[in-house]
Amino acid sequence: MLKYALLGFLNYSTYSGYDLKQLMDVSTSNFWHAKQSQIYTTLKKLEKDGIVISHIEPQESRPNRRVYEITESGKEDLRNWISQPMTTIESRKETLLLKLFFSSQLDPQSVLTELRLQQNLHQAELTRFQGVTKDVIQQFSSSEDMQKEAQFWEATRRFGELYAEMYIRWLDETIENLES
Amino acid sequence: MLKYALLGFLNYSTYSGYDLKQLMDVSTSNFWHAKQSQIYTTLKKLEKDGIVISHIEPQESRPNRRVYEITESGKEDLRNWISQPMTTIESRKETLLLKLFFSSQLDPQSVLTELRLQQNLHQAELTRFQGVTKDVIQQFSSSEDMQKEAQFWEATRRFGELYAEMYIRWLDETIENLES
DNA sequence: GCTTTATATATAATCTTTTATATATAAAGG
DNA sequence: CCTTTATATATAAAAGATTATATATAAAGC
Questions:
Q1: Where are the beta strands (DSSP E) in chain A?
Q2: CA nearest to nucleotide C20 C1': residue
Q3: What are the helix (H) ranges across chain B?
Q4: Which of A7, A93, A180 to mutate to test the interface with B (most CBs of B within 10 A)?
Q5: Residues with CB under 7 A from strand C
Q6: Per residue in B102-153, pLDDT tens?
Q7: pLDDT tens digit sequence for A71-115
Q8: Class of domain A2-83
Q9: Which of A15, A86, A127, B139 is most buried, most CB within 10 Å of its CB?
């Protein structure tokens, strides 16, 4: 699926692996992330499959950049994927819930400590969503032909915000129940 | 991490791979799931590592069961994992958001169709959480020494409920924004 | 002057997860 | 009578993702 994240960006412009990592970190990290190594190996695989092509862009005093470009075949693949509707709910993995589920044998105080720690982390995350990420969207969508994009990007930002709020609410409730 | 899901169950009783798959499907699937093949191969690996041991339980007219038991080393490993607090937020992967993020080139109507489909799926999921899963908890926690467990299990059920509500709310908002 | 951060790519090894297939039989539904 | 569902385990192959390491240099901070 990382494939489509990369193609999605390359559909706007040409980028290097390094660029794509930066882009994902500031825009999609909330719902899709990847390590540097995976990005590089996936780009290589996509080129082998004829979905992107690359060329070296020489630089003085910096390592050369390998810049990737989406091919027609890649554009079709991307369009096809986006237009194919998802007919199921995606399943989650929540390590904190897994730990909590088996926490009955543990000291009740350390469970509460962990939940309060997560509360702080999610609170910080929420604050971040209400501020910084909004700036990124405005920055990207300053041009007129980006108005449509901005709407979708705002939707994904909003999801992060609602998710953090929900998580904090759940932690509040859970802590309260365990304290009594 | 599947390792700890399996150990968590085996800490209560001995189970076969088949049992563990059933258990996960009715209890943890909301926040942790695994395919049959992964469960079997993981159990094999855990036995090689001395974390569980197994023995064959013969059955007439049914395939023999391989029943697993947690070892002392396994119990220690589990306790250790549970008591180790998580100091970061877990990152998510939401394919629907990824698609939405790159949907600007797509026909607006098909985006709305997909979102409405997800709305129905999450609505059904929410109804399921408010009913069926509650029964499972009551069934499991009927005995007195399960009161503590029930509290943690209810917390994970509640998470599923809040998550579905949040998701539906986000879909509502997003659809409304796209329609106008 | 020294350390850290940023720019840039690449690969090996490992771990995790999914998809697919094989085998065997009883009970239940239609 | 036939098909599906449930019981049960096992493994191969592939895909997806993480951890770790290597290399190289400029700019910025201290």
A1: 15-16, 52-57, 65-70
A2: B37
A3: 2-10, 17-27, 36-48, 72-83, 95-101, 108-130, 132-140, 147-179
A4: A93
A5: A 16-19, 22, 36-37, 40-41, 44, 59, 62-67, 91, 93; B 1-3, 33-38, 41, 61-63
A6: 999 888 999 999 999 999 999 999 998 887 666 665 665 556 667 788 889 9
A7: 999 999 999 999 999 999 999 999 999 999 999 988 899 999 999
A8: mainly alpha
A9: A15
